Amino acid sequence: LYHSIEEFSVDVRLTFDNAMTYNEKGSVVHGMATELKSRFVTDHKKLLMQLEAEDREARKNDRACTLCGCEKLLFEPPVFFCNGMNCASKRIRRNSHFYVGGNNQYFWCNSCYTELDGNIPIELVDMTIMKDDLKKKKNDEVHEESWVQCDECECWIHQICGLFNTRQNKEHHIKYFCPKCLLSKRRCGSMKSLPRPASAEDLPRTKLSEYLEKHVHKKVSDRKHQLATEKSETEKIPYTAAMKQLGCGGQVIIRQVSATDRKLEVREMMKKRYAHKSYPDEFSYRCKCLVVFQRMDGVDVILFALYVYEHGEDNPLPNKRAVYISYLDSVHFMRPRKLRTFVYHELLICYLDYARKKGFAT
């Protein structure tokens, strides 16, 4: 998945460059790669010019957002899962009828609703309802992004494009300026810049976050230098231009956002199964959450989250001095995109090294 045309263009050029690098001059493959790269560069320039012209034309439309040029921004339709006994949480098909109840938190497909007995209460996790309480709906909802009007230029823009926060303007008493008007006012000095809001860098630091961040920063710097050098040599361009084309985002920030002491109760089934090993009733551990940020376009974006469970020296076997990676998740927004997996691997390697130095064995 490419986030920009330039990212796609870089990879296409690299494909042709590799073909020319690993096939000698004069060969059929080298000649075809040279011709195709030349044609691609020409067509790419034409496409960019065409897209820019279309974008300028779209912004002239009174019904389009002046920032993105689109008329409508549609969100992905909501997904509903059936709570009926026979469906086993199957997804309710799009454009089909279904029934909803329990503060719009529980759903039944048409077939499961038919099998419900109107005289028997429906026992849910947090409430009890009757069949007559369910309301019929059709799974055809379309959610469109809301609009907001600039109080200065009176242009309409999408709320998400203009970073408009409806929760801060519930009474409609605050004037709203679109980004273009805001920049214009700040340049001419008629509006003072607001104080810088708290950022990810302002979050409290710990020895663990310092250790991880220092390691990752060094590895990322070395990796960027390697990628830029390879790009510079392959494409015969200056090193600074190669580094710029990598599309590097802001610095990676790592913080430990929580550290709580908890206890894990051992279930009866485990006690019975391992009764001969004198399994304890509970294991105490410390749960830590590590988060990776990167500043993009002036905003700190969360890219990765890691939860770890640390069992100390006082724990009985098999959890004595043991570390568990409980959960990790990430999103595809890191810049440059090629560093995404590299950064997460380095973070895991560095954390495990930190745990080993702290005396954790497994």
Keywords summarizing the entry:
3-stranded antiparallel sheet; alpha+beta; 4-stranded antiparallel sheet; 35% helix
Please report the distance between the alpha carbons of the first and last residues: 37 Å
Please, how many helices?
8
The pLDDT mean sits at 87
Structural class: alpha+beta
Description:
The chain is an alpha+beta fold and 362 residues long. It is built from eight helices and eleven strands. Strands 8-9-10-11 form a four-stranded antiparallel beta sheet, with helices on one face. The relative contact order is 0.08.
Record the SSE blueprint.
Layout: H1 5-21, H2 28-59, E1 97-101, E2 106-109, H3 110-115, E3 122-123, E4 128-129, E5 135-138, E6 147-149, E7 156-158, H4 179-188, H5 207-235, H6 239-245, E8 252-265, H7 268-273, E9 282-296, E10 299-311, E11 322-330, H8 340-357
Helix pairs in contact: 1-2, 5-6, 5-8
Would you summarize the structure shown here?
The protein is of the alpha+beta class and 362 residues long. Helix content is 35%, strand content 20%.
